[in-house]
Amino acid sequence: MILITRAIEDALPLQEELAKLNIESHIESLFNLQPLSFDCSILVGARIVVTSKNAIRALSLLDASKDLNIYTMTDNIAKFAKDLEFFNVSSCGCNTVEELEKHIISTFDKSNRFIYLSGMEITRDIVFICNAYGFTFERLICYKMNAREKFSEVLVELLRTARVKCISIFSRRAAVVCRSLLTDYRFEPNLFHYFLMSNRVASVLDYPNIHVPPFPTQSALIDIIRNHYYTEQEN
C-alpha cells in the first residue's frame, strides 16, 4: 500500500489510477488549509492566475464571486474550479510553473491587470518574471497551510503493521513534515520507499529508497510506482 500525502480532492485522481493497477493506497494530507481574509472586491476586473487547487479552495471558503476571470495552470485545476461553481475559468494547459510563465509571456495581453493568487508557503513567485516582461502583476496571498502535528490513528496502524510500505510526497515542505512525523512516531524511515515528484523534493530526504520520475507529472509518477510494485511482485 502507498500513502498519498495530499488533500483528498488532489489525491483522488492518483488513487483512481493506482486502483486500476491493483495498487492499494491511503490518502492523508500533511497540512490543513487556512484561508486568509482579504477584500475580494480587489479581484473584480483582474485576470486571476492560479497554480494550485488550494487557492481555489480558499476563494470558495471566502465566498468570492463565482464570475471572477480565472486562469489556471492545469486542466485539472480548471475542472476543480468549475466543480466549485466558478464559471469563468480557462486552463493554460501547463504542467509546471516554468511552462506557465512562458505561456503568459507569449500569449497574454499586457494591457490587462493580473493577480497571482497563492499560498504563504509558495516559494516560486511568477510575478517577478512576468513584470520583467512588462506585465502588471501583483501577488495576493490567500491561504496558508498549517502542518499537522500528528498522523491519524488509522495511518499509524497502517505504518506500524507495515501495510503502508511506500510514501508519495509532492513538495519540499511536505517532505520535511513527513520526515519529522516519522521521527516523532519512531518509525525507521529507511524501511519505506519514497515516490517524489522532483529532485528538488528529493533533496530534503537523505534516504536510500528514493524514486523520482523523469518528468514532474502524475502519469510519470504512476509509471515509476507501477514499475516498483511489479518488480516487487516478481521478486
Automatic annotation (TrEMBL):
InterPro entries listed in its UniProt record: 4pyrrol_syn_uPrphyn_synt_sf, 4pyrrol_synth_uPrphyn_synth
SUPFAM superfamilies attached to this UniProt entry: HemD-like
Boundaries of every Tetrapyrrole biosynthesis uroporphyrinogen III synthase domain copy: 16-222
Signal sequence bounds: none
A GO molecular function held by the record: uroporphyrinogen-III synthase activity
One example of a Gene Ontology biological process annotation: tetrapyrrole biosynthetic process
Protein name: Uroporphyrinogen-III synthase HemD family protein
Organism: Neorickettsia helminthoeca str. Oregon
Phylogenetic classification of the source organism: Bacteria, Pseudomonadati, Pseudomonadota, Alphaproteobacteria, Rickettsiales
